[in-house]
Design goal:
single chain, globular
Length: 187
C-alpha cells in the first residue's frame, strides 16, 4: 500500500500505462484558479472563465460548476500519458485515456506562477493543444513539484524517445534499384 499521495496516484495510474511511471502530475485546466476568484465577484463570469479554461485544456480535466475532473499526466522514460480522472476519496479514479505521446511528438512549455505552474502540451502529429496548470501550493506542492521536475527531465533529453532505426533499414537511405542502375549507366 502506498504511503504518500504521490505514490497512491502513481499506483492508480500504473495499470493503464505499459512502462514504469516516473511521476504523475495532477493538473486542471489552466485558469481554474483565476475562475475561483472571478466567481466570488460574479458567478456568471466565473462560469465563463471555467468554460474558456475547459476549451483551452482540449478536454483534459474538465471542470464544471459543482463537479471537477482532473487531468493525470504520467511521465515515463519514453512517453507522456494523459488521462481524465475524477477524485475518489483521497485518490483518483482514471476515467479515460486521452493520449500517449512519444517525446519526439510533443512540445511542452511550463510557466511558473504564484499558486500554480502552467503546463502547455502541443502534439506535433495531431495538432492537439492542451493548456493545463499544476497546483504548487498546499498538499499538491511536493506532489506536482516532483512531476514538474520529471517533466523537465523528459523534455530536456536529446533526440527521439524511441530507439533510432539504422540508416540501412530506412527506405530513404538507398535509392531504388532502378535509379541506382540508371546512375551507373549514365556515368
Amino acid at each position: 500500500m502506498a504511503s504518500s499521495f504521490a505514490e497512491q496516484t502513481k499506483e492508480s495510474v500504473q495499470p493503464h500505462v505499459d512502462e514504469p511511471i516516473i511521476a504523475v502530475g495532477v493538473l486542471q485546466p489552466a485558469g481554474i484558479w483565476g475562475s475561483i476568484g472571478v466567481g466570488q465577484i460574479s458567478r456568471i463570469a466565473g462560469a465563463l472563465t471555467r468554460m474558456s479554461a475547459n476549451k483551452k485544456s482540449g478536454g483534459l480535466g474538465k471542470v464544471g460548476e459543482l463537479k471537477a475532473n482532473m487531468a493525470l499526466v504520467a511521465v515515463t522514460e519514453h512517453k507522456l500519458h494523459a488521462f481524465n480522472a475524477k477524485p475518489w476519496g483521497r485518490q483518483f479514479k482514471v476515467q479515460d485515456a486521452v493520449g500517449a505521446w512519444e517525446r519526439s511528438d510533443v512540445s511542452v512549455a511550463t510557466t511558473k506562477g504564484t499558486v500554480s505552474t502552467k503546463v502547455v502540451i502541443d502534439v506535433v502529429s495531431t495538432g492537439d493543444h492542451y493548456e493545463l496548470e499544476a497546483s504548487t501550493i498546499l498538499q499538491m506542492k511536493g506532489h506536482n513539484d516532483a512531476f514538474l521536475a520529471a517533466l523537465h527531465d523528459f523534455v530536456a533529453k536529446p533526440g527521439p524517445s524511441a530507439p533510432p532505426t539504422s540508416p540501412a533499414a530506412s527506405p530513404a537511405a538507398s535509392p531504388p534499384a532502378d535509379a541506382a542502375d540508371e546512375a551507373e549507366d549514365a556515368g
